[in-house]
Design goal:
heterodimer; A: alpha+beta; Transferase Creatine Kinase, Chain A, domain 1; Creatine Kinase, Chain A, domain 2; 13 helices; B: Transferase Creatine Kinase, Chain A, domain 1; 2 domains; eight-stranded antiparallel sheet; two-stranded antiparallel ribbon; about 35% helix; ATP binding (chain B); nucleotide-binding (chain B); Creatine kinase S-type, mitochondrial (chain B)
């Protein structure tokens, strides 16, 4: 699934130009890279789990994209996709991740003690702090390809691992298909509940199949550590809290992740990782750390400053609205997070957020006093 | 199957672990572990059908009613000659649990052979949907002789427009849920080449969805001809919107009375329509056009999918047989307010829809009234049934206008014996 490797050999009866998709109106990374020649070279291949080139690119074919926003346009169906289709995925990865080369190595650093500072972001401006990443479980195919049996297997393993946690991580699992109305209401109010994907970027990649079978949300009793099971990745792991103590958020993130990983490893199902691509996730944009560390921060003056976007770029940060990706900011409050995922470690990415947000809050304060900020604008990081 | 796992496992502890976590899935995981990937065929053995059987407890569709774990186990690992699978056929029904009041079909065919390879599922679904029609024992009659139709010119004080539609599939090419881009483009090529051979009142032209100008698009919208990318999850979950708008298009004759959709929910949807109440002419053109198109594709060595068990083969089991929906837009202000309206329609084997088509509400007193049935009765029979029914409805309306009472007609029998 979704479209069946089975049909792939049948397609080979047709010439390359007959099967090659029409990408003339497309603006995504896949469309930029996939020439007819490359399509011809890769179309008879499939991963050991039967994921094919057309499976990889279907979402990019079905979603031509927007002139201003460059989406990735392809997904992996399993760990091996990144190897079997490397001639397509390596250039896309390079494009998306600042020229990352096929020979580059990615550094993983989940030692929270290596983070400097981060516990003193001004809570008058920084309303909340959050770090998220994804993890894929070795031995299973990824959401675009997984069968119901596999998805349930992933859920079962994940629930076992998570419910064995204790202390600050003691919590409970809520399967999507059997939660009560009261539970659902509470999860919505806590901003924890994820819904069936409506974005065609996800649905065209086959990730919403069999919803809500095998999907659920786990969170600790303190509501500061949260895991989504079988949404866009096997696991999405989130650490969050109100206020600006990013250091504490990151500590809990690292500790929780390592506890969970240890349990999976015991069952011979460690996380998918290699030294070139770091953590393997469904979308090539999330390779490496898969980490998005960010804050909701009030920057009404700075956000309207002519150099705001320039500052963000130099700090290697990105802005989003407070509803997350593809939403607009409300009341001058922005979601500011790291732009990079691959080629730098977790610690260094969170460090960029901590340092960058600290600087921007200083700039905001200066602008409030009517002072200029030009001398504060940093060099490109 | 279990024994092959236990051979590889040593130790009581591991066995206990596996047992506690659910034998099928966890055995698979344990074996895969760090030692590398497993081939697809090995995997199907490691995940028994029971681990993959969909949770259909909240579902209300024909597929969910028919699919038992035993049938699933038997069919899960089969493929059609085009390599289409059961899981692909049922995905739309798994993803769309349905509504307590509306029973959808919940499965699609990927190719002609699906109906045979997965007959153990499709036969009960067909029986459920088509009033007990049994493909194992019954034959479907095909009759496109429009001269047999009588009384088919309606009172235009009531009937605003008349329309007949059906679908046709090109034998040898996979259906919209399964087709590759090359196959879809081939369907388009075969059909458009054939249509270019139509002459006289049927002469027309093709508008590819991807290449039409803004002006052409606006005109097609104004004519109510343009179809859009499917948004209904019933269709998108059945993979029918892939690669949109590649190889999709609309052909219509210059008079705008004969229209063909290419590669939407079926290879082709064929529509004959006109304003007013002359259903006789609409059906005559329908039959003539269909026969000519069939002749034109046969000249090039192609044919329509058809067999005597199921009639014309289409993507959705609900459209098997004739695939025919004959209908009118008709004003019935008084009758539609009468509490017996639904029962009358039921007994006449008619259905009502809003004037926007399926799943729309009626505006004012104008309804889309069409035949319920598709399989087990011929085109001529169904159109005559619609004609007689509409005439009866108009008679009822006229009676009610005069303050007279109406009677609910006796129900029409289901199948020709």
């Amino acid at each position: 699934m979704p479209f069946g490797n089975t049909h792939n050999n049948f397609k080979l009866n047709y010439k390359v130009e007959e099967e090659y998709p029409d990408l003339s109106k497309h603006n995504n990374h896949m469309a930029k890279v996939l020439t007819k020649e490359l399509y011809g070279k890769l179309r008879d291949k499939q991963t050991p789990n039967g994921f094919t080139l057309d499976d990889v690119i279907q979402t990019g074919v079905d979603n031509p994209g927007h002139p201003f926003i460059m989406t990735v346009g392809c997904v992996a169906g399993d760990e091996e996709s990144y190897e079997v289709f490397k001639d397509l995925l390596d250039p896309i990865i390079s494009d998306r991740h600042n020229g990352y080369k096929a020979t580059d190595k990615h550094k993983t650093d989940l030692n929270f003690e290596n983070l400097k500072g981060g516990d003193d972001l001004d809570p008058a401006y920084v309303l909340s702090s959050r770090v998220r990443t994804g993890r894929s479980i070795k031995g299973f195919t990824l959401p675009p390809h997984s069968s119901r049996g596999e998805r349930r297997g992933i859920e079962k393993l994940s629930v076992e691992a998570l419910t064995s946690l204790d202390g600050e991580f003691k919590g409970k699992y809520y399967p999507l298909k059997s939660m009560t109305d009261a539970e659902q209401e509470q999860l919505i109010n806590d901003h924890f509940l994820f819904d069936k994907p409506v974005s065609p970027l996800l649905t065209c990649a086959g990730m919403a199949r069999d919803w809500p079978d095998g999907r659920g949300i786990w969170h600790n009793d303190n509501k500061t550590f949260l895991v989504w099971v079988n949404e866009e990745d096997h696991l999405r792991v989130i650490s969050m809290q109100q206020g600006g103590n990013m250091r504490e958020v990151f500590r809990r993130f690292c500790v929780g992740l390592q506890k969970i990983e240890a349990i999976f490893k015991k069952h011979n199902h460690g996380f998918m990782w290699n030294e070139h691509l770091g953590y393997i996730l469904t979308c090539p944009s999330n390779l490496g750390t898969g980490l998005r560390g960010g804050v909701h921060v009030k920057l009404p003056k700075l956000s309207t400053h002519a150099k705001f976007d320039e500052i963000l770029t130099r700090l290697r940060l990105q802005k989003r609205g407070t509803g997350g990706v593809d939403t607009a900011s409300v009341g001058g409050v922005f979601d500011i997070s790291n732009a990079d995922r691959l080629g730098s470690s977790e610690v260094s990415q969170v460090q960029l957020v901590v340092d960058g947000v600290k600087l921007m809050v200083e700039m905001e304060k200066k602008l409030e006093k009517g002072e200029a900020i030009d001398s504060m604008i940093p060099a490109q990081k | 199957m279990a024994s092959s796992f236990t051979r590889l496992i040593s130790g009581r502890n591991t066995a206990a672990l596996l047992a506690s976590l659910g034998a099928g899935t966890m055995a698979a995981g344990f074996l895969m572990s760090e030692t590398g990937p497993l081939a697809a065929d090995k995997k199907t053995k490691l995940y028994p059908p029971s681990s993959d059987f969909p949770d259909l407890r909240k579902h209300n569709n024909c597929m969910a009613a028919a699919l038992t774990p035993a049938i699933y186990a038997k069919l899960r690992d089969k493929v059609t000659p085009n390599n289409w699978t059961l899981d692909q056929s049922i995905q739309t029904g798994v993803d769309n649990p349905g509504h307590p009041f509306i029973k959808t079909v919940g499965c699609v065919a990927g190719d002609e052979e699906s109906y045979e390879v997965f007959a153990e599922l499709f036969d009960p679904v067909i029986k459920d949907r088509h009033n007990g029609y049994d493909p194992r024992t019954m034959k479907h009659p095909t009759d496109l002789d429009s001269s047999k139709i009588t009384n088919a010119v309606f009172d235009e004080n009531y009937v605003l427009s008349s329309r007949v539609r059906t679908g046709r599939s090109i034998r040898g090419l996979s259906l919209p849920p399964a087709c590759s881009r090359a196959e879809r483009r081939e369907v388009e090529r075969v059909v458009v080449t054939a249509l270019a051979g139509l002459k006289g009142d049927l002469a027309g032209r093709y508008y590819g969805l991807g290449d039409m100008t803004e002006k052409e698009q606006q005109q097609l919208i104004d004519d109510h001809f343009l179809f859009d990318k499917p948004v209904s999850p019933l269709l998108t979950c059945a993979f029918m919107a892939r690669d949109w708008p590649d190889a999709r298009g609309i052909w219509h004759n210059n008079e705008k009375t004969f229209l063909i959709w290419v590669n939407e929910e079926d290879h082709t949807r064929v529509i004959s329509m006109e304003k007013g109440g002359n259903m006789k002419r609409v059906f005559e053109r329908f039959c003539r056009g269909l026969k000519q198109v069939e002749h034109l594709i046969q000249e090039r060595g192609w044919e329509f999918m058809w067999n005597e068990r199921l009639g014309y083969i289409l993507t959705c089991p609900s459209n098997l047989g004739t695939g025919l929906r004959a209908g009118v837009h008709v004003r019935l202000p008084k009758l539609s307010q009468d509490p017996r309206f639904s029962k009358i329609l039921d007994n006449l084997r008619l259905q009502k829809r809003g004037t926007g088509g399926v799943d729309t509400a009626a505006t004012g007193d104008t309804f889309d009234i069409s035949n319920n049935d598709r399989l087990g009765k011929s085109e001529v029979e169904l159109v005559q049934l619609l004609v007689d029914g509409v005439n009866h409805l108009i008679e009822c309306e006229k009676k009610l206008e005069k303050g007279q009472d109406i009677k609910v007609p006796a129900p029409i029998t289901q199948f020709r014996k």
